[in-house]
Structure formats: structure tokens, C-alpha cells
Specification:
Blueprint: E1 6-8, E2 14-16, E3 19-21, H1 27-40, E4 44-46, H2 54-63, E5 72-77, H3 84-98, E6 105-108, H4 115-127, E7 134-137, H5 141-148, E8 157-161, H6 169-176, E9 181-185, H7 199-206, H8 212-221, E10 226-227, H9 234-241, H10 250-257, H11 272-282
Parallel strand pairs: 3-4, 4-5, 5-6, 6-7, 7-8, 8-9, 9-10
Antiparallel strand pairs: 1-2
Helix pairs in contact: 1-2, 1-9, 2-3, 3-4, 7-8
Length: 283
């Protein structure tokens, strides 16, 4: 990972700050997309059991020509595998699908079901060398704090929706108490609010020779937030990756900070109806 911006997690593991996410990448397309991403320069690849494309990631990792130790693979335990025994089995299944002896970062995908049992299984797998770091995803401040106070290994990462229109400032303060790094899914806000042509981002970008999307990603990076933009097009992969050769000024950071509309993402993970739907459908 030489020459690539990394962040040191709270257990000392170094993690690339710009990665490639494969959420909603079709299984049949995944191997090609991940190979393209790795060829572009990405070394962090983010998948999940619930994306049903871990095999594609594994095939790409096995055939890309880049040594495994130079790649950083993240996956997530889905709610249907919650609990110590089921989670432990799912970790072994993910290792097999990813064709690897270890996973660099394993997260609990969502805070439902017996996620304490899931975390215990993850701590055990960490101790056994199957994992290099563990954490959570989509944990709000309350559930995150409760978990962090009752586990032996503090979460290294919390992956949540974060972008210029939803900046997660409150959660950032909570994570800092535990040395936990924020990782942004949907770092480009799925193009909401005209992000790709937003006047503020366009104006700032013009001064750096960068696109609004590159400015939006750079804003997160300068706040020490890991980003995993997704695209199936190599040109866009290249654009999203080229965000480490410029820096935003304090004034530009302040202008972008003012774009924040709501602080905690567009999905309400505490909504009883949403929770019931997920548990009844996948639990």
C-alpha cells in the first residue's frame, strides 16, 4: 500500500482511506469490476455477505496479480447469521468465498438480532488470526456506545452513510472517544441534491481542476473518514480514486460543512417498521 493514504486503526492496523465498494454490483459483474478497480489502484475492497458477491471479489483477488498482503478486504456479517455460533460459521464461509486465509476488517452489518453474540464470534476469530480488525456498520451513537462499553475489543470502524449532505458530526464525536474510525458508505450521496453539478462543489472544484464528486470525497478524507465509492465504469473509478493529489483550504472545508442538511443519514435504523421488515425478511 505504498504511496496510498492510509489511516491507522485503534489496534495499529493500517487501512487505505480510499476504497472500492461493491454494494449492488451484480455477482456476474463483480469479478470484472473488482479487477478494474485494483488495476486502477484501489487496494481496499468492501463487500458483505448480504451483497451475494463475495465469490466475485474472491475470484478477482485470486487472479488480479497483486499480492494478497497488499490488498485490504472488508466484509460484513448479515443479520441472518447473528449469534455466536451462526456468525462463526459465516466467517468461515466468507473466508472460503473470498479465497483467503484472513479478512482484514469484518463488520457487523446492522445492529439487529444477537449482535453481541456475533461480536463475541468476531473477537474469537480475531484472536485466531482469521481477522485483522473488527467493527460495526450502521450503529447509531446509542447502540454503538452500549456495545463499546461491553466488549473486550473496541470497534475499529463504524461504517455509516456519510456525505456532504449528511455529515454525521454527532456520531463522529462519539466514535472519537473509542478511537473508532468512521467509514462512509454512499460517500457521494447517490447523487442526491444534484451533487455532481452542485454550485458550491463545482466552484471549489474549478480552483483545483477537480470535479464536484472529487471535492465531495476529498472533504470526507480530510475529516479522516474512509470512503468507498462504487461505480461499474472504469472511467468513474479512476475519477473517484484521483482525490489524494489536492487539498481543500479551511475556508473551502467550511463552505462544504454548511451543506449539511441532516446529521444521521437517510435510513432510520431505529424505525420499528424497518426493523420488523428486515427481521421478518432476513432474520
Amino acid at each position: 500500500m505504498t504511496g496510498m493514504k492510509t489511516i491507522t486503526l485503534n489496534n495499529g492496523v493500517e487501512m487505505p482511506m480510499v476504497g472500492y465498494g461493491v454494494f449492488q454490483v451484480k455477482p456476474e459483474e463483480c469479478e470484472r469490476c473488482v479487477r478494474d478497480a485494483i488495476a486502477t489502484g484501489y487496494r481496499l475492497i468492501d463487500t458483505a455477505q448480504a451483497y451475494f458477491n463475495e465469490e466475485g471479489v474472491g475470484a478477482a483477488v485470486a487472479s488480479c496479480g497483486v499480492p494478497r498482503e497488499e490488498l485490504f478486504i472488508t466484509t460484513k456479517v448479515w443479520i441472518s447469521h447473528a449469534g455466536e455460533k451462526a456468525a462463526a460459521q459465516s466467517i468461515d464461509d466468507s473466508l472460503r468465498k473470498l479465497r483467503t486465509d484472513y479478512i482484514d476488517l469484518l463488520l457487523i452489518h446492522q445492529a439487529y438480532g444477537d449482535y453481541y453474540g456475533t461480536y463475541r464470534a468476531m473477537e474469537t476469530a480475531l484472536q485466531a488470526g482469521k481477522l485483522r480488525a473488527i467493527g460495526v456498520s450502521n450503529f447509531g451513537a446509542g447502540r454503538f456506545t452500549d456495545l463499546a462499553l461491553h466488549v473486550d475489543v473496541k470497534p475499529a470502524v463504524n461504517q455509516v452513510e456519510a456525505h456532504v449532505f449528511s455529515q454525521q458530526n454527532g456520531l463522529m464525536e462519539v466514535l472519537r472517544e473509542y478511537g473508532t474510525t468512521m467509514m462512509a458508505w454512499s460517500p457521494l450521496g447517490q447523487g442526491r441534491n444534484g451533487l455532481f453539478s452542485h454550485p458550491v462543489l463545482s466552484d471549489i472544484g474549478s480552483g483545483h481542476g477537480k470535479t464536484p464528486a472529487q471535492v465531495a470525497l476529498r472533504y470526507l478524507l480530510q475529516r479522516d473518514i474512509i470512503v468507498i465509492p462504487k461505480s461499474t465504469h472504469r472511467e468513474r473509478m479512476q475519477e473517484n480514486f484521483a482525490v489524494e493529489d489536492f487539498a481543500l483550504t479551511a475556508d473551502e472545508m467550511s463552505r462544504i460543512a454548511s451543506l449539511n442538511e441532516h446529521d444521521a443519514g437517510n435510513v432510520n435504523f431505529d424505525d420499528p417498521g424497518f426493523i420488523r421488515y428486515l427481521i421478518e425478511t432476513y432474520g
